[in-house]
């Protein structure tokens, strides 16, 4: 037993010494002898028999694959009313992306959904072509985690050898000595030219340089060219066209008009705009007055705030006011919703409009921001529109169209005065709203905007 222990200790010492010296062959032979001397299991580990007191050896390995993991990014879940969208790629294969950097946008019929990178890394493969259709949960692209070499840093390295090829300026041969003497400080007298040496040809005899006929012909060809281009309609534009056509086919649309004297509201805005901006850090506009006036008029005429449910053949009257405000974006017209306007004041409405407008400009509107809405206001006056008839935003029953403010002569107290006037138009579904309700609603808006004190007096 003692000799066996000495042999086991000697073999273990040889194995440990070989491992420390890096001699793999000797280590294997010593380990084999150690295994023959005692019952040992080798599976990336050298373990001792539980009955002996021999030490335990473990081998550890690290792998770069754990640091450069490849992940597949899927399409995020859409809202309930959205089933699919079109992919528009912002990055290409081989591009280095940072964490949360936008890789692509998915254009749906209501808004665009941005897909960020879950981690910093390099894009390996795009699994959907540009413009391809995807549904929620579909695979979009694969990403190798880990910061790849930035493209901006590669360019100087590539240019460095090219810049080193030309010889340095010091190696260039010196220029030949000039035969020109020193520059004189005074001009010598010019000798007279003999008469026979002068050119007597008329100016018309001098031949001009090469004519620019080819360039003129090219310009004429470009001016006469009749070219055209085709661009695929995005999903938002297609959806807008579909909804507008549905409104024409479904609703019995009728439009009534009126004009609003903007003198009082303009004077109020001019008087308090600086103090308002200083206190609330937001500008006071005209839209808040019309939104509040619309909420006030909708409470007075609930049929304008209602809707026809064609499925159940019922009229739905709402006791709340959610006003959609039309906002023009490069991709199309969007209508984010200001909810519970009946309980808001001017400041609350201005802040809500500013927040929704900022999200629309940054293309950050979600589907939830545009769902619902019981009434819509469209302000074409910001583009200089003087007059127009808006189209109902289904499934709503009415829409108010604002237009530009222009100075016009109007009769005031039997006299002609120049006032800032705005035409307003109300398009409504005549199946639900009669002319009396529509005209009364529009006159209520006119009276409240012309004299905001009516809101305080609840008249």
UniProtKB/TrEMBL annotation:
A single MF term (Gene Ontology): dihydrolipoyllysine-residue succinyltransferase activity
UniProt keyword annotations, A-Z: Acyltransferase, Lipoyl, Mitochondrion, Nucleus, Transferase, Transit peptide, Tricarboxylic acid cycle
Keyword Transferase: yes
Biased composition (Pro residues): 164-194
GO terms, biological process: L-lysine catabolic process to acetyl-CoA via saccharopine; tricarboxylic acid cycle
Matches recorded under Gene3D superfamilies: 2.40.50.100, Chloramphenicol acetyltransferase-like domain
Annotated signal peptide: none
Ranges of Low complexity composition bias in the record: 147-163, 205-224
Described purpose of this protein according to its UniProt entry: Dihydrolipoamide succinyltransferase (E2) component of the 2-oxoglutarate dehydrogenase complex. The 2-oxoglutarate dehydrogenase complex catalyzes the overall conversion of 2-oxoglutarate to succinyl-CoA and CO(2). The 2-oxoglutarate dehydrogenase complex is mainly active in the mitochondrion. A fraction of the 2-oxoglutarate dehydrogenase complex also localizes in the nucleus and is required for lysine succinylation of histones: associates with KAT2A on chromatin and provides succinyl-CoA to histone succinyltransferase KAT2A.
Listed name of the protein: Dihydrolipoyllysine-residue succinyltransferase component of 2-oxoglutarate dehydrogenase complex, mitochondrial
């Amino acid at each position: 037993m003692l000799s066996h222990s000495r042999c086991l200790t000697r073999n273990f010492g040889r194995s440990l010494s070989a491992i420390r010296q890096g001699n793999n062959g000797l280590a294997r032979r010593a380990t084999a002898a150690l295994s023959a001397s005692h019952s040992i299991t080798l599976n990336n580990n050298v373990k001792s028999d539980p009955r002996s007191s021999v030490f335990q050896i473990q081998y550890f390995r690290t792998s770069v694959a754990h640091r450069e993991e490849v992940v597949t990014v899927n399409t995020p879940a859409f809202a309930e009313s959205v089933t699919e969208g079109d992919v528009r790629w912002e990055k290409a294969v081989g591009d280095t992306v940072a964490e949360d950097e936008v890789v692509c946008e998915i254009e749906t019929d209501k808004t665009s959904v941005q897909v960020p990178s879950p981690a910093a890394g390099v894009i390996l493969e795009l699994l959907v072509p540009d413009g391809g259709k995807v549904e929620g949960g579909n695979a979009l692209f694969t990403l190798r985690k880990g910061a790849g070499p930035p493209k901006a840093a590669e360019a100087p390295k590539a240019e460095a050898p090219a810049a080193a090829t030309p010889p340095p300026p010091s190696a260039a041969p010196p220029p030949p000595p000039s035969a020109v003497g020193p520059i004189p400080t005074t001009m010598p007298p010019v000798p007279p030219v003999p008469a026979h040496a002068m050119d007597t040809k008329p100016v018309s005899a001098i031949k001009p340089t090469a004519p620019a006929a080819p360039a003129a012909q090219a310009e004429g060809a470009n001016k006469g060219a009749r070219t055209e281009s085709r661009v695929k309609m995005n999903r938002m534009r297609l959806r807008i066209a579909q909804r507008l056509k549905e409104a024409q086919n479904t609703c019995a649309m009728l439009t009534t008009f009126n004009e609003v004297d903007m003198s009082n509201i303009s004077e109020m805005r001019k008087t308090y705009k600086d103090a308002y901006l200083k206190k609330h850090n937001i500008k006071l506009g005209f839209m808040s007055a019309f939104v509040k006036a619309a909420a006030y008029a909708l409470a007075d005429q609930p049929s304008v705030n209602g809707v026809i449910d064609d499925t159940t053949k019922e009229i739905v009257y709402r006791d709340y006011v959610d006003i959609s405000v039309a906002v023009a974006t490069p991709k199309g017209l969007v209508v984010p919703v200001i909810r519970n306007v009946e309980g808001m004041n001017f400041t609350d409405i201005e802040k809500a409009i500013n927040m929704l407008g900022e999200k629309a400009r940054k293309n950050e509107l979600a589907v939830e921001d545009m769902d619902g809405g019981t009434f819509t206001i469209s302000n074409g006056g910001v583009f200089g529109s003087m007059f127009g008839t808006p189209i109902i935003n289904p499934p709503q029953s009415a829409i108010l169209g604002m237009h530009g403010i222009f100075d016009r002569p109007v009769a005031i107290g039997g006299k002609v005065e120049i006032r800032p006037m705005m035409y307003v138009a109300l398009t409504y579904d005549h199946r639900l709203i009669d002319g009396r309700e529509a005209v009364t609603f529009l006159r209520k808006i006119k009276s409240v905007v012309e004299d905001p004190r009516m809101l305080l007096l609840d008249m």
